[in-house]
Design brief:
The chain is of the alpha+beta class. Helix content is 56%, strand content 18%. It folds into 2 domains: 185 residues, no CATH class; 172 residues, no CATH class. The protein has a 6-stranded mixed barrel with strand order 2-3-10-5-7-6. A two-stranded antiparallel ribbon has the order 8-9. It starts with a helix and ends with a helix.
Length: 406
């Protein structure tokens, strides 16, 4: 009967006597485990980051943009633009909609005194802060009266305010956009970046002012806008709101074939990003898993070398009564210890890598318990699998031949 305790004790002593070789043997397993755990953690962090970015756009938000869903029209004609009148129709005729925020976006140079910067200028209505969950930090936001009268007022993102007015309050100050003077009436609270686009470096003006005095109205159908943000009444109304908006715009644009607009659901975007990041995580984990396979091959190679080096020891043990099962067990235990210890060290290294990623990037990467369990189990299994061949070779050695070859 095999004495597992004795076999384990001998295996540990043997590995301890060859520390450098044991450490080098474990290196492949360590790198494999660390890579798998780090890549899975980064993938999960990317998914959480993307979800947080979309949630920052506001709750229950739909986005309506010009162009067909397939991003490819059957003619070379430019699709009919969305208009301010479209947004008003959605606000008044779609019962599942709570607020509608049309937006007109352009890039312009903003000048304040002797300072200037190239920034995004967005024409909006008062509903913008409700739909997109923005808060005013100082001053006030654009009102319905500003939109109706086309007043030359502007609200700044905090980063843009700091760039243009670094040493004084921007409220009440004047800046110029294409040589048109605007009065700063407010500064928004910090919102952060959305997928790399800094939302705090934007200037907001009344939509009518931007259209009439900066960009010019180029649509024959009405006041042209870049896109429309819509907030549904609640999460359960999202699908109904999307369907009703599509039907209304088809009637308004007299569409009988392919849509000239696209309604994007926030949840659909989140699901798409989740699928992409999930597939990317699996791919990265699979690539990193190759290191585990390489580590297993390394274990087998070193164990085969160990069998040849310890031929005399094996012969002597078998000569004094050790069975093939005893020899097989010892070598299998050695391989398993190498793989398991390498897995443990790799897990620690992977956890450290995730902490480093979290500290140096916006990704809130975390250690996946599932990834740790799978990686350690796989590394242990690899040790067993690749330890079989050298263990069987050692167990089959003839004691007489082994002693003679020593």
């Amino acid at each position: 009967m095999v004495d597992f305790a004795e076999s384990t004790k001998m295996a540990v002593k043997t590995l301890a006597a060859n520390r450098l070789r044991s450490a080098l043997t474990m290196l492949g397993i360590i790198i494999g485990n660390a890579s798998v755990i780090t890549m899975v953690g980064v993938g999960e962090g990317a998914r959480e980051y993307a979800a947080g970015q979309f949630e920052s756009l506001g709750p229950n938000v739909l986005f309506i943009i010009p162009g067909s869903p397939a991003s490819q029209n059957r003619t070379l004609e430019r699709p009919r633009a969305l208009t301010f009148e479209d947004s008003e129709a959605i606000a008044t005729q779609v019962p599942t909609v709570d607020s509608v925020a049309p937006q007109l976006v352009t890039q312009q140079t903003v000048v304040a005194g002797n300072l200037n910067t190239n920034s995004t200028i967005t024409g909006v209505t008062p509903e913008f802060t409700t739909v997109r969950s923005f808060e005013v930090d100082a001053g006030r936001f654009i009102t319905d009266e500003d939109v109706e009268r086309g007043t030359r007022v502007v609200v700044l993102g905090p980063d843009l305010a700091d760039s243009l007015f670094p040493s004084e309050s921007p409220i009440g100050q004047t800046l110029r956009i294409r040589n048109v003077s605007f009065e700063v009436i407010g500064v928004l609270e910090a919102k952060g970046a959305f997928l790399g686009d800094n939302q705090d470096d934007i200037a907001y003006t009344p939509l009518t002012t931007l259209s009439s005095q900066i960009t010019g109205n180029t649509s024959p159908y009405g006041l042209e806008i870049s896109f429309i943000s819509v907030m549904a009444r609640d999460e359960q109304s999202m699908t109904a709101a999307q369907f009703q908006i599509q039907n209304l715009l088809r009637l308004r644009h007299r569409i009988v074939d392919e849509d000239s607009f696209t309604v994007r659901n926030q949840k659909d975007a989140l699901e798409l990003i989740g699928n992409v990041t999930g597939a990317l995580t699996v791919m990265l984990a699979a690539i990193a898993g190759i290191s585990l396979l390489v580590g297993g091959i390394g274990i087998m190679n070193i164990m085969l070398v160990s069998v040849r080096e310890r031929t005399q020891e094996i012969g002597l043990r078998k000569a004094i009564g050790a069975s093939e099962q005893d020899i097989l067990t010892q070598f299998m235990i050695e391989a398993t210890i190498l793989a398991a210890l390498g897995g443990a060290v790799g897990t620690l290294a992977g956890s450290g890598g995730i902490m480093l990623v979290s500290a140096l990037t916006p990704l809130a990467a975390g250690v996946s318990t599932t990834a740790v369990i799978v990686a350690v189990c796989v590394s242990g299994g690899i040790g067993l699998f690749f330890g079989v061949v050298p263990a069987r070779q050692a167990a089959k050695l003839d004691p007489i031949v082994a002693l003679r070859s020593a």
